[in-house]
Amino acid sequence: MKKVILIGAQGKMGQAALTGLGNHQVITASRSGKDCDYQIDITDENSIRAFFKKVGSFDAVVNTVGACEYEHFVDMSEQQWLSTIMSKMMGQINLVRIGQEYINDGGSFTLISGILNVKPIPLAIADAVTSSAIDTFAKCVALEMPRNIRVNVVNPTVLEEAWDVYGEMMPGFQPVPGKLVGKAFERSVDGFLNGEVIFVDA
Amino acid sequence: MKKVILIGAQGKMGQAALTGLGNHQVITASRSGKDCDYQIDITDENSIRAFFKKVGSFDAVVNTVGACEYEHFVDMSEQQWLSTIMSKMMGQINLVRIGQEYINDGGSFTLISGILNVKPIPLAIADAVTSSAIDTFAKCVALEMPRNIRVNVVNPTVLEEAWDVYGEMMPGFQPVPGKLVGKAFERSVDGFLNGEVIFVDA
Fold it and tell me: What span, in angstroms and rounded, lies between the C-alpha atoms of A134 and A156?
């Protein structure tokens, strides 16, 4: 049994990840902290550091959050780009950058990207661009981690559980059950994968 | 003959691109403006807008700049990440975002990424991550451009002309002549490619 930190635990992706973490002691966190053990704002490096200091010893981080702005490219402001970058990209980079100071030897980070970087749709360019950044980040940073720490990223298609929200903007996509995405998180946390982009698509 | 804006004209990559632009009227620009027709700071959206307003009518933008911080991941600060992001990533996104308002119908943007996103080396993680962001950006934004505007990105390996500077940190890499990279820019500007990552590697 490992001590696993799950960020975004109350979201749909967090609940999907949770189905793959049944063998572990799960510490939950989210931006609001509501119904979670801890509060963390991944867009703020001070919040990240304070969080890891508070939690103490842990073996794995599973992040399921990364807020994106959805907009047509020509209408998207620099500010909208930067708010996406600071959450889905810089936020996740900072989770690994700061978290690697605190995580136990042989621990793992599992990040989140999303299939829209290989299957583009209108409005989602900032999501797609930052997802590719994180996919490449996971591949590269795995080569630099000390103390046998591993880093992977789960790149899922849309969840069945979120199809009512996203289905209309994703014609021709096949949603997958959250439990299948949970298995990708499980393979990352419990396996020996490292520097891998774990696609879950149908 | 097209009117082509070349950004970073005095750099080694700019000189490589220039070898492929022999059929065109080339307007040169750089951060300092030294020995160039214009000055532009791609990290500042106001500088970008002022630049396009000054230049007037044009058919193509070829960008060869994107400043990156080189550092081991565990030693790289958020500030170093953000300065790389604001230049190589946000800067190039802003060139297209603002430039598409000013470019002629059927014009083209050619951006720059770099081979280290598929061939990682120590110290270059921020370069690699932002290069992947720009590769995906070009693929996605091409699907959204109005008025038959095209967008491509050249993803080159190291230049022979820069081997004395970068060779030591890139063991096992085969540099390519600037003229070969120039042909990639030529194919983007003079061809009909769109949303393409044009790799130049050996």
Answer: 13
CB count in 10 Å sphere of residue A56? 9
Q: How far is B68 from chain A (nearest CA, A)?
A: 15
Per the CB < 8 A criterion, the answer to whether A48 and A55 are in contact is: no
B78 and A45 within 8 Å at the Cβ level: the answer is yes
pLDDT tens per residue across span A55-81: 999 999 999 999 999 999 999 999 999
- Whether residue A34 lies within 8 A of chain B, CB to CB, comes out as no
Whether pTM > 0.80 for this model: the answer is: yes
Kindly compute the dihedral angle of the four CA atoms of residues A173, A179, A183, A185, in this order, to the nearest 10 degrees. Answer: 80
- Angle made by CA atoms A33, A16, B134, in degrees to the nearest 5: 85
Instruction: Examine the predicted complex and report whether its ipTM is higher than 0.90.
Output: yes
Q: Decide if A189 touches B, using CB distance below 8 A.
A: no
Cα B168 to the center of its chain, rounded Å: 23
